[in-house]
Design goal:
Number of strands: 8
CATH architecture: 3-Layer(aba) Sandwich
Largest sheet: 8 strands, mixed
CATH topology: Rossmann fold
Structural class: alpha/beta
Number of helices: 12
Distance between the termini: 36 Å
CATH superfamily: Alpha/Beta hydrolase fold, catalytic domain
Strand order of the largest sheet: 1-2-4-3-5-6-7-8
Radius of gyration: 18 Å
Number of domains: 1
Helix content: 40-55%
Length: 303
């Protein structure tokens, strides 16, 4: 069921939920907000209304999340069947790029949190000149990708084939998801992700829990935990010719600030790096006032 502000866009015979705040005839630029894993467009609850004062601001539910379709996951080595979807960064990026071209229809600034940042980078490649810049908000570094396996302890390298076989079992992933989607687990994870505890309220718990109760919700989880060889943000930034701004939670428990600093020193496309003191993996929601000011500055720069 959609809300009054929610719209549905048909993409490849699936439903994609999105919402828009702020509108004007023939705007020079728009912003598009891309949520992280397990979240949804409402995770930008404190950002979208403010950013919309500067330019039309869209938020989209990625396939498998929020109110978008949740088709059965097809893993990369499985036979293809009609109606299935491979949950990977290329397919999510194609969803985002097509949305920008068919619905937004203006040059865009892509703003992504966590895996939404990796998706934004890949989509910017697909959009070419129609993407003005990308903002990575505590971007996923994907430490467990096969391409980074050499960084892991020997025992992790030895057990990787066993792990891949284990998590490919749908019965296991479904049970893991159902446990993770409980209210108690969601609250515990949020306490980790938001070290200051700010804005961890019932509204946040409910907006994350509600989509997880849909029948197809475990499918994106099944697909995602089987992504062992996919895009990494540094590779996507190697030849990027648009500016990238980094906004990072100083106390991010999962994506170390040191990685962001390393990226900033290695990639010419990175224009700025801003640290949000005391914030964790979702600084846009934990410290929205500070993050909104940084995002508004990016929008003004692109105008």
């Amino acid at each position: 069921m959609t809300t009054p502000e929610e719209h549905i866009w048909r993409w490849k015979n699936w439903n994609v939920a999105w919402c828009l705040k702020g509108s004007e005839p023939n705007p020079p630029i728009s912003t598009v907000l891309i949520h992280g894993f397990g979240a949804c467009k409402e995770h930008w609850r404190f950002n979208q209304p403010i950013l919309a004062k500067a330019a039309p601001c869209y938020a989209i539910d990625l396939m498998g999340f929020g109110n978008s379709s949740q088709p059965r996951a097809r893993l990369q080595k499985e036979l293809e069947h009609e109606g299935e979807f491979t949950y990977n960064f290329d397919n999510w990026a194609n969803q985002l790029a097509d949305f920008c071209q068919e619905v937004v229809k203006t040059p865009v600034i892509l703003i992504g949190n966590s895996i939404g940042g990796v998706i934004a980078l890949r989509a910017s490649q697909l959009l070419g000149r129609n993407c003005c810049s990308v903002v990575l908000v505590s971007c996923a570094t994907r430490a467990l990708d096969d391409k980074r396996l050499f960084e892991q302890p020997q025992w992790i390298r030895w057990t990787r084939p066993w792990l891949k076989n284990l998590v490919s079992q749908r019965w296991l992933s479904i049970n893991l998801f159902r446990n993770a989607a409980s209210q108690g687990v969601i609250k515990r994870v949020l306490k980790q992700a938001y070290p200051s505890g700010k804005n961890v309220d019932d509204s946040l718990v409910n907006l994350l829990k509600k989509p997880s109760q849909r029948a197809g919700a475990p499918e994106a989880f099944h697909g995602f935990i089987n992504l062992f060889d996919d895009h990494l943000a540094p590779q996507l930034m190697e030849n990027l010719d648009i500016p990238v701004d980094l906004i990072w939670g100083e106390e991010d428990p999962w994506e170390p600030l040191s990685i962001a600093n390393q990226w900033a020193s290695e990639h010419n496309c990175i224009r700025s790096i801003k640290t949000i003191k005391g914030a964790g993996h979702c600084p846009h929601d934990e410290a929205p006032e500070e993050v909104n000011q940084l995002l508004l500055a990016v929008i003004q720069e692109a105008m």
